[in-house]
Specification:
The chain is α+β, with helices and mostly antiparallel strands and about 150 residues long. The chain has a domain of about 70 residues. The protein is built from three helices and four strands. The radius of gyration is 26 Å and the shape is rod-shaped. The structure holds zinc ion (3 copies).
């Protein structure tokens, strides 16, 4: 079988046709630049998309934390980066995930049965079933046996 070659329009090197991504709308069915150059050209674009998504993710998270918090229900930590949302076991909607995605909550119209916890308290509760803080303003969990 004869190998077809093609010259990359970016790096100008001649390469086997398989080194070019397929593109239906192009006359020879391939991209004008080779895979390597194509990928390089996409990096800034991808970064911009990623940055945009991060910004948007943060916005939804901020909305969710503000609605269910804004402080950790156990230790009252208020630093956004430390906070997460957790299902309140005693009061949980049956289909609710344990650690819901902020988008899921938003899509469901901010359902009841969730609260904000800092990662510290969140993790401790998951692991031990109580938090040594004793749960200030916090319902649904037993206190530490020693508290
Ligand atoms: Zn190239
Ligand atoms: Zn906490
Ligand atoms: Zn705690």
């Amino acid at each position: 079988m004869e190998i077809q070659y093609k010259r990359c329009c970016t790096c100008a090197s001649k390469q086997p046709i398989t080194e070019f991504y397929r593109l239906k709308s192009s006359p020879d069915g391939r991209y004008p630049n080779c895979i390597l150059c194509y990928r390089k050209s996409r990096v800034p674009q991808k970064k911009a998309i990623k940055a945009g998504r991060r910004k948007w993710e943060r916005k939804i998270r901020e909305e969710a934390i503000a609605y269910y918090g804004p402080n950790c229900a156990c230790c009252l930590e208020g630093q956004f980066e430390f906070l997460s949302i957790r299902r309140i076991e005693d009061n949980a909607p049956v289909e609710g995930p344990h650690t819901p995605d902020p988008y899921w909550l938003k899509r469901k119209g901010w359902p009841d049965g969730f609260h904000v916890l800092c990662h510290n308290c969140h993790h401790t509760l998951n692991r031990y079933g109580y938090c040594p803080h004793g749960g200030i303003g916090f319902k649904g969990y037993p206190q530490s046996p020693t508290a």
